[in-house]
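Appendix C reproduces, verbatim, an entry submitted by the partner laboratory led by Prof. M.T., so that reviewers can inspect both the input and the predicted structure.
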Amino acid sequence: MPVASGTGSEPGRRIAEQCGAFDWGYLIHRMSEEGVLFLFFYYIKQFHLQNQLPPDVLDVLSCRYYENLRKNMIACTALKPLFDALNERPVPFIVLKGIALAERFYPGFGIRGMSDADLLVRKDDMDLVDATLSAMGYVARDSSVKQALDNPAGYLASLDYRKNDGSLPNLHIHWHPVNTSVPAFMFAGQVDQDRLWERAIPATVANATVRILCPNIS
């Protein structure tokens, strides 16, 4: 049952009693660093506690949340044609983290922030992936596909793609789930990628048919 918005509710009364002592600037900064700012605002709304926050604080939270929601919606619009193009090739891919979590697992689409869109593809498909992205205006940054694929096992196993016009989202294309600038060959080889692909499940993300990681691959 939703909590009433008045100060008569226990959570509302506690917030009203303590909000004057809060260093809201510090709290907002820390929540941003910890990635929970949008979650905080979402539940403030869910429990109808907006009236218990200082108006300027509520304005900051609201602006940031809805700006993130806007970015996520723009990302969905941009990713759909990309996902469709990969499906048409066809190039198997798995959507990782960010947009898949925001759309499918978080209670609100504006809660999960993301700086780019992460996809996992098979290493042997990278040339075709690169050609598909290039045709859509994406350019690999920092390295070529050939150079990146020559990286030692357990090292960098991804490429960043961006559009020259600066439009978002940027893409982070992985061909191995272990992707680090610190050599991790000692455990990278223990990842059973064949099983990971076999257990990936079909889903709809950005109104397109994709695959996502199975929550349980045991």
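The first strand starts at residue 93 and ends at 96. Additional entries are available on request from the coordinating office.
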